[in-house]
Amino acid sequence: MLSKAQVLKAREAVERMYTGTCMVTEHQKVKSGASKLVTYADKVVLEDQPCRLSFKGLDSAQQTESAAGIAQVIKLFLAPDIAVRPGSKVTVTQDGVTADYRCSGVPAVYPTHQEIILELFERWA
């Protein structure tokens, strides 16, 4: 079992590798006051959060009817105390490149960081 000081030191080491920043946007229900009409609006819930993107290409190509596709795993590393809901839009700027992604599942949370698998954002589901 690691002490709190050891975990803190390990977390600081992981966070020194963060070279990007991210913004998290949620598509939330909004109810208008008078008409009680429910609509959806984008709400930024987190801005300028230090992070790191990792890309991993899978070795095997997936053959489809039209062409072979190459799969890629996009993983976001983030502080463990940040909450990112599945389905959220995550805008990441790293190495001068900004891209929009969708949080595709529940994060794997560790004492030093969390890992979130992302997919390219196309539109709100």
Keywords:
125 residues, six-stranded antiparallel beta barrel, mainly beta, Thrombin, subunit H
Describe the structure.
- There is one protein chain.
- By secondary structure, the chain is mainly beta.
- The protein has a single domain (4-120), classed as Thrombin, subunit H (Beta Barrel), CATH 2.40.10.
- Helices cover 10% and strands 57% of the residues.
- It is built from 1 helix and 7 strands; from the N terminus they run αβββββββ.
- The chain has one helix at residues 4-15; strands at residues 20-31, 38-63, 68-78, 89-94, 97-103, 108-109, 114-120.
- Strands 1-2-3-7-5-4 form a 6-stranded antiparallel barrel.
- The longest helix has 12 residues, at 4-15.
- The protein is globular and about 55 Å long.
- It starts with a helix and ends in a 5-residue tail after the last strand.
- The model has no long low-confidence stretch (mean pLDDT 88).
Briefly summarize what is shown.
The protein is mostly beta strands and 125 residues long. It is built from one helix and seven strands, in the order H-E-E-E-E-E-E-E.
- Cα Rg: 18 Å
SS-based class: mainly beta
CATH topology: Thrombin, subunit H
CATH class category label? Mainly Beta
Largest sheet: 6 strands, antiparallel, barrel
Averaging pLDDT over every residue, what do you get? Answer: 88
- Provide the succession of SSEs: HEEEEEEE
Low-confidence stretches: none
Strand order of the largest sheet: 1-2-3-7-5-4
Which shape, going by the Cα principal axes? globular
- Domains counted in the coordinates: how many? 1
Proportion of beta-strand residues: over 45%
CATH architecture grouping: Beta Barrel
